[in-house]
Amino acid sequence: MKQALLILALAFRAVAQDMPEEEQRRLSEALAEAGSSPIEFLRALEKHLEAFPKTTKRVEIERALVKAAIEAKDERRIVLYGERVLEREQDDLQVLERVARALLSADDKESAKRALPYARRYGEMVSKMRLQQETPGRMSKGQWLEEVDRGASRALALEARATGNLGQAEEAAALAARSFQVYPSGEAAREAARWLIRMGKEAEAVRRLADAFTVADPKTTEADRARDRQRMGELYRKTSGSEKGLGDLILESYDRTAAVLIERQQRLAESDPNSKAINVLDFTISGLSGEKLRLSTLKGKAVVFDFWATWCGPCRAQHPLYDQVKQKFKGNPHVVFLSVNTDEDRSVVEPFLRENRWSKTVFFEDGLSRNMQISSIPTTIVLNRRGELISRMNGFLPDRFVKMLSERIEEALK
User: What global pTM score does this model have?
Assistant: First the structure.
């Protein structure tokens, strides 16, 4: 399991530094025996804490434990170690959400009382994220707003469950309705139905279940839809005596949820020109000074994308080789080279360019790297004159790079 392996590697690097030699040896052996299993990893770290209760790395180990518990879907340990982590670090979004969700799976008042502050804190942090001026990492503005809205919706749904379990069904239903307004999801619609049923408003609950059944939500599984359909049918028969008219109600819900999603996409399009981008040439990317480049204007040319970052050592080594290739095609108006930066913190880019005397003709990826599935850098992408991807070079071979890229460009020009 690749994700588990990553957790293991990161956790070991975090906890092993500056440990006494014997403790470091014991931990290294335990993790090696655990292999790639998150469950065995959990056991290994728990045994290490038993053997070394006064370890100076308890904070790092408990942080690794909660991440592994999330990976293993171990709700007891998510709560156990998650609450310890949150006592020290109240700004870990993933831990806040997963601890609240794990507590609420118990469906009792005591767990709801503990979960409610976490759900609210999660919502507060997501709201602050909305105020960020720049999007992080490999996201366009539209993708960022989409993620923020999803997070805000999840926070409200969790708050609704906790509030309802504490006996406030009406407030819970209102919170769930707000959750659906912020980001239409099956979870939000089901949560609203849950508390409407508790309040005896079963006819209204049927409509919310219809929304859960029809809304285009990638998080909703076929099993979820089957349960929504079954529960909706049961409630409709109870309130109407038969299922006559239920089909019309479902069709109305399809129309209603589709209209909500279309309106949402239109709002995103106003804030982000890339919200509807499907192909590479659909994207508009921003330059260092805020200028915009519509990639569609490059159709008919061979385009070379150089994805790099300021912290990437190989990118620095590759840079002069790029310059050699550029010189070879300097007089060809049908070849365009685009330097695409992927740094999460854009403020570091201009000082880096100035210090290293690199050209300032640099663009930010603005969600392009996700579309092009850039998983490592440096990566070089070449499009032919029809806008088709014909070459992907992950990393580079110093002694062959200039020849290889030149050949790819010649092919793109044909």
Answer: 0.71
Long-range contacts of 66-71 (CB under 8 A, 24+ apart): 66/95, 66/98, 67/7, 67/11, 68/4, 68/7, 68/11, 68/38, 68/41, 68/42, 69/38, 69/42, 70/94, 70/95, 70/98, 71/1, 71/3, 71/4, 71/7, 71/38
Mention every residue, 6+ apart, whose C-beta is less than 8 A from residue 226.
Answer: none
Is residue 12 predicted with pLDDT exceeding 80? no
Q: If we measure between CA atoms, which residue out of 23, 35, 98 comes closest to residue 61?
A: 23
- pLDDT for the residue numbered 61: 87
Name the residues annotated as catalytic: 312, 315
Q: b vs e for 231-263, b when ≥16 Cβ sit within 10 Å of the residue's Cβ? A: bbeebbeeeeeeeeebeebbeebeebbeebeee
Of 164-178, 190-204, 345-359, the poorest mean pLDDT is in: 345-359
Q: What is the DSSP secondary-structure string of 82-106?
A: HHHHHHH-TT-HHHHHHHHHHHHTT
Dihedral, CA of residue 322, residue 323, residue 327 and residue 333, to nearest 10: 70
386: left (phi over 0), alpha (psi -120 to 50) or beta: alpha
Domain parsing of the chain, residue ranges: 280-413
| pLDDT tens digits, one per residue of 257-280 | 999 888 888 877 777 777 777 888
> Which CATH architecture is the domain 280-413 placed in?
3-Layer(aba) Sandwich (3.40)
> 69 vs 3, which has greater pLDDT?
69
Residues in CB range of 338: below 8 A, 6 or more apart: 285, 293, 303, 304, 305, 306, 363
